[in-house]
Amino acid sequence: MGRIIAVISGKGGVGKTTTSANVGLGIAMNEKKCVVVDFDIGQRNLDMILGLENRVVYDIVQVMDEEVKLKQALIKSKYSDNLFFLAASQTKDKTVLDSAKIKKFVTELSEEFEYVILDAPAGIESGYEHTIEFADSAIIVVNPEVSSIRDADRAIGILDSKSQKVKDGKEVLKYLIINRINPKMVQSGEMLASEDILDILNVPLVGKVPEDKGIIDASNQGKPIILDKNSPAGQAYSRISSRLCGENIEMMDVESIKEGFIDKIKGIFK
Amino acid sequence: MFSFFRKKSSANTAKDRLTIAIMSDRENNSYPFMDEMKAELIEVVKKYMGVKTIDIKKEVVDGVEALSIDVELDKK
Questions:
Q1: What is the ipTM of this complex?
Q2: What pLDDT digit, counting tens, does each position of A129-175 carry?
Q3: Predicted structure pTM score
Q4: What total of structural domains would you count in chain B?
Q5: What's the rounded Cα separation, in Å, for the pair A14 and A45?
Q6: Is B17 a member of any domain?
Q7: B57 CB near a chain A CB, below 8 Å?
Q8: Which residues form the domain of B74?
Q9: For residue A225, what is the DSSP state?
Q10: Quick one: how many helices (H) and strands (E) in chain B?
Q11: Mean pLDDT of A103-113
Q12: If you measure CA to CA, which chain A residue comes closest to B35?
């Protein structure tokens, strides 16, 4: 049985879908068979980030309703033979989901794949609850900013009361990703530092991702930033993926990154 | 001049405000006995009609605590 990991945040727009795409691809690059599933019914987006929007034929609701077989709906990534993708339905709304169907669906996925990544919708409504229901772990994405942290705490609270694993008396594993860290602002005391966020949320950290202009460019092209070996965010996602695959990689001190001399010179000529 | 250096950074302000907000969020959202109560409520309603799920929420409005209970019935 593979692992089922929900990617959650509470607040929207903090990088949940970007994280799902990059971590999924990163895990696949670690030679593990991985599927990323867009659970944001009605607001499909992960297909764009993975550059697969033109290949979507069937969606997860059709698989759950047994209109099509899982194999027919799976789309192979252009970037790794180990990565597959399943699209959210764009036309239906999230009320179509029901627990029994979801359980059957994710169980089938976990028999087929070593890692099943579920990209949750923003918010803490039923669509979110359904995404976390049968997950054995969760990646929580936050930005160093008050509304994101507060909403993440609410989402964690629901995770700890509504997931099947918790109802069975077990614990859902949690991995915190602090995304969009601006090192300069942390150094000047204008942005919350990671330790502060960890103090408040009290969940284990799996990685810190610096703010990176390349993210927009990557999503423009449908090419996850992890493929850009020189990008700071891509490197961060790469380390996170390896950690999720069980490797012991030292946490990088993203906050104390200083703009290098060469970068400054380059900046002048830009 | 020194007051400039003594000024609290906005990150510290954020941490203090968040700590308080989250503490109050956490205590406002549930009672420790919520799961047990939910299970018992389901048993009670089941005696009379089919029940799919029960959702209990603790709500605090202007300092007054309220319990909101949603019972979703089984169609059959």
A1: 0.83
A2: 999 999 999 999 999 999 999 999 999 999 998 899 998 999 999 99
A3: 0.85
A4: 1
A5: 14
A6: no
A7: no
A8: 32-76
A9: G
A10: 3, 2
A11: 97
A12: A161
